[in-house]
Amino acid sequence: MWLDDELVGEELALFEAWVLGQPEHLAAREETRRWRSMIASALPASEEPPYPDFFNTRIAQAIRDQTPKATVAPEKRRFSWQAILMPLAACAGMVLAFWVGTKSQPKVEIDVAGAPRAIPVEQIIYTPESGVKAELIASQDASAMVIVLDGVRAIPDSTDFSETTYVPVGREFDSTASVETAISDLEAP
Amino acid sequence: MNRRHAIFSAVATALLGVAYPAAAQDDPGKANIGRVSVTVYYATNGDPITAGTKAAAVSKTTEKRLRSEERLNFKSYRALGQDVQPLLRSYESWAQPLKPSDEVLVKFEASSLPTAEMMKLDLEVWFSRKKILKTDARLEGNRPLFVLGPEWRGGRLIIAVALAPKEKPKS
Amino acid sequence: MNKSNGEPSKIVQGPVGSIDSDNSMDDPDDDFRLVALAQKGDLKSYDALVTRHRGRIFAMIRNMIHQEADAWDLSQEVFIKAWNALPRFEAKARFSTWLYRIAHNVVYDWTRKRKIESAGELNDEIFERERIDSASFTTPSGGESPDTSMSLGELRMKIQVALNKLSAEHREVVLLKDVQGLSYKEIAEAMDSTLGTVMSRLFYARQKLQTLLKDEYESR
């Protein structure tokens, strides 16, 4: 522990007094300090993660996603005739009001086209390589999600893929076909 | 009593038939919950012959689909390779569509149990042994993910990740 | 047509080198204050804790596994697990030490789970660290001369290659002691180990690293 400068107070003082006559221990401590200095200079103790704001947002989102909604336990009530008759009366009242309403007011069509739609959760994309950008497109025309990568290093033209083990041909499974279509293709005689 | 006994035996046998493979499978994480195909296409506005003679023509359906998206619209397409790998419950899988080349690799792992309509994956796309893209993909039966990738021989590679149908049982 | 940009060019990678700009990192009392608030459900206080400690956790995990993208994910996992375990946190140890403990478990689980189980054959060579393009390491930035940057970058790579030759436990103890600056006692808590085991692992690991890095070590 002394080698790593972890002794303090009286312990340290006592040891320091003793070690003055021990050159090999002093050398060992110096070596340890040199080593720690070297490694600390090369490896960061702290490094902001890429996209730090997004980092925090993802954590917060994950926490929110897993937090169950609070439920309130129902209270126990003593039996009461009111508890039965009141809802029945309310029901009867609503039926009567509805019947009167249908007789007196014109029908109103509810327009669902303008109703608010659920906001889809955005797909997360991350490009660890510096200089590479990604754009996410929900393509209705292609009926697919599309990620366009920009800044990726080109594969050398000399690279040859003629040895590829499997190349889909003709009526082989087409990865972009629907699952139902592919299954029916497989099952066709 | 005989009838009751027969029913019990049938049920017990059925249960054993289900339980035995489950028991035999040491790690439930290795359960196969689907299949994912990864196909690499070569897209070019030049002569598609530059992709090589082994590259295959692409179905009209695929061509039409790719062309309908502006960013994927090219004059010609060729299929360079495909790999289909199982999707495991809690282990990652690697697809190597241009095997033996490892220029294009796709790693995927289920991030939720699949429903009848959709499967959620954590996906990584590697080019030239570098991790280039990481995303959470939602794949549906008729809705793949296309990644417009690097340039090669005057064109671009397009990586298509899609749900694959279950393997046809061997008769 | 919906479009969503994946945060491309706005953010650059963080700087290499010790970041000591946040003095509250060394203020465990303030951590306890924020933890107490977070334990009551205050996400804002927890967010402040995340901001305060994310640099150290990310650096630690990145130095352990050398995969920046996975380190990014695993670091988040540490904070999500820490949130879930907050009710069990008692102010007996530092919050940062507790986080290192969670990071230790997360990295261990990740390493164990990382066995490739795909049905196809795959060339395992791609997972040899030494073959991964050195350009994937974060390059130094922020005011250093090109010579210093190159020198530090090379040294860093050599140290990381050497660290890779150690077992995960030996690697972790060196990183926690010599990089993160934890005390022996804190390391024992983070690694769920004894003081004696930590000391002997550290001794062995340093000896091995100094042998592997002999040329570097003697030239400094």
Total strand count of chain A, please?
3
How much helical structure, as a percent, in the residues of chain A? 40-55%
Question: Please, what is the oligomeric state?
Answer: heterotrimer
Query: Count the helices of chain B. How many?
Result: 2
**What's the helix count of chain A?**
5
How many β-strand runs of chain B?
A: 9
Into how many domains do the coordinates of chain B divide? Answer: 2
Radius of gyration of chain A, CA atoms, in whole angstroms: 36 Å
Distance between the termini of chain B: 38 Å
- The helix-and-strand class of chain B reads alpha+beta
N-to-C terminal Cα separation of chain A, in Å?
Answer: 77 Å
Task: Tell me the strand order in the biggest sheet of chain B.
Answer: 2-3-1-9-8
Query: Largest interface, and how many residues on either side?
Result: A-C, 54 and 64 residues
Helix-strand topology string of chain B? HEEHEEEEEEE
Overall mean pLDDT of chain B = 82
Shape of chain B: elongated
Relative helix content of chain B: 10-25%
What fraction of residues of chain B sit in β-strands?
Answer: over 45%
Strand content of chain A: 5-15%
Integer-rounded radius of gyration of chain B:
21 Å
